[in-house]
Amino acid sequence: MSFSWSEFQLEPNTEKLIALGTLEVTLSRSEMEWVTAYQYRQDRYVNESTKQVAAFRTIANNSGWQLKAKPSAADRNVVVRPVQTIQIPHGETVNLYIGTPVWLQILVVGTEHKLIDLPVEILSDSWFGSNTMNGEICYANQTQARLDLTKLTQRPDRLITPVTIRNLGGETLTIERLNLPVPNLAIYDTGASLWTQNVDITHTGKLEMTEVKFPMQPPSQFPEATLVNEPRSVEDNNLVMRAVELLFDGKSS
Amino acid sequence: MIESIGLISLARALFVVAIGWLVARLAGRAVMRISEEHVSLHYKSLIRQGVVYAIYVIFLIMAIRQLGFDLTILLGAAGILTVAIGFASQTSASNLIAGIFLIAERAFSVGDIIKVGDLTGEVLSVDLLSVKLRTFDNLFIRIPNENLMKSTVTTMSRFPIRRYDMQIGIAYKEDIRKARDVLLKVARDFHLCLDEPAPLIIMQGFGDSSINLQFSVWADRKKFLDLRNGMHERVKEAFDNEGIEIPFPHRTLYTGSSMQPLPVHITGDKE
């Protein structure tokens, strides 16, 4: 990976530029304060007229000069839409590799105060629910949903989630969108890229009967991977139930 | 001697009322300290009102007894008094009943954004006689419950997402398919615009000066204003870049006989 997720020190009255994805963060430190500025480079959602720099100051009388960059998962579920719909016939099992943008956290070593916690690219909002009254606001993301591990591109700004879907229902399962509970996933560093733990989905016919598991252990493809960040939200039964209810926007046929 | 007993009773009654006032205030504060995780702000303020009024009534009865009045006679007199008060306070009574219905119906609660007639604002409290609103220009408005029962109330913060319907006119010479593609790309490239429910374009018909379209996009309720402002900016920019004209109203003058040009006479001073 070309990006270093490690500790670093800022010299007095100097600036440090951190660029990942389309996000650019400039940090500087004086005796009394941190000054943080960030902006997103031009992309699909940001053009010359909407581009802007945000800046803020953080008082630092009692903090040291060491900072650390940490990867984190999105703060809301991400609804991924495969470029083409995927059909899983009855009895088939598929392993999909789904990439979602990583969040960049910069923390002050010692106090653990977060100077920033931002996505490395702007994500579009999306809605995932059975109708316009019940559901939740998520992020939208398109995915190639690769089946072959060797075809995955190693990018420091993406998190790879290995998703296994077993279709034990009597009919073909068509997946148009998949709601990934990324805030509940931990992040592992394989040395070459960032991964989350496995998400195992077993579909037994009815969408409400779908079982979702994300065991807290390194991805089975990289058992030696090291844990670099805990999940944002601690898993609870309600959340898992919600994920189950709202996992698919597909149909059985 | 009798006078001094009377004064002592009055002092006792006043003391009881003062204690009642203090207890009611403390109880009211205690209710408001209940975590919002257990009880919503709406219900907390209702419970607080109920508790405070109940304590007031109990201590008032105790104070009346301290003054030496017989409560049964008082209650009898109160029955006659109620009829008289009922006639005199019909408006308050109808507001009170409307308030009970509003509270039971739960069409909105404290913190919601509602629209009543021309007024839009945040609900500060739902009381037995009236609902208090804070408008976006920071005015405090009291709406009698009776008025609310009779009018249409729109709760704008009930559902997490909202649709914005943008009315757009394009010139008759423009290609409608191209305009539609440009609009859909604007929605795709604006991160506040939800990809699902998908944006919608509805042909509204042929207007006096333009082909009228309705462009409907969905957004997170909390970011609705940003979406609304951003969409107008982006649609104008995209139409300018693609050379699609947004026409202003045209007026064609007809002289009465077809194919005849409008006669023009030039007048001026003869030298």
Which properties best describe this structure?
heterodimer; A: 253 residues; mainly beta; 7-stranded mixed beta sheet; 4-stranded antiparallel beta sheet; 22 strands; 46% strand; B: 271 residues; alpha+beta; 5-stranded antiparallel beta sheet; 3-stranded antiparallel beta sheet; elongated
Describe the structure.
The complex is a heterodimer of chains A (253) and B (271). Chain A has 253 residues and is mainly β. Chain A has a domain at 74-101 and 123-252. In chain A, 4% of the residues lie in helices and 46% in strands. Chain A contains one helix and 22 strands. In chain A, the strands form five sheets. In chain A, strands 9, 14, 17, 18, 19, 20 and 21 form a seven-stranded mixed sheet that branches. In chain A, strands 1-6-10-11 form a four-stranded antiparallel sheet, with no helix packed on it. By secondary structure, chain B is α+β, with helices and mostly antiparallel strands. Chain B is 48% helix and 20% strand. Chain B has helices at 2-32, 41-66, 71-88, 90-105, 145-150, 176-188, 224-242; strands at 113-116, 119-126, 130-135, 140-144, 153-155, 161-170, 200-206, 211-220. In chain B, strands 4-3-2-1-5 form a five-stranded antiparallel sheet. In chain B, strands 6-8-7 form a three-stranded antiparallel sheet, with helices on one face.
Largest interface: A-B, 21 and 19 residues
Q: Could you spell the SSE succession of chain A in H and E letters?
A: EEEEEEEEEEEEEEEEEEEEEHE
The number of distinct helices of chain A, counting runs of at least 4 residues, comes to 1
- Taken as a percent bin, the fraction of beta residues of chain B is 15-25%
Distance between the termini of chain B: 118 Å
**Helix content percent band of chain B:** 40-55%
Helix residue percentage of chain A = under 10%
Low-confidence stretches of chain B: none
Mean pLDDT of chain A: 83
Assembly type of the shown chains? Answer: heterodimer
**Overall mean confidence score, pLDDT of chain B:** 85
Question: Shape of chain A, please?
Answer: elongated
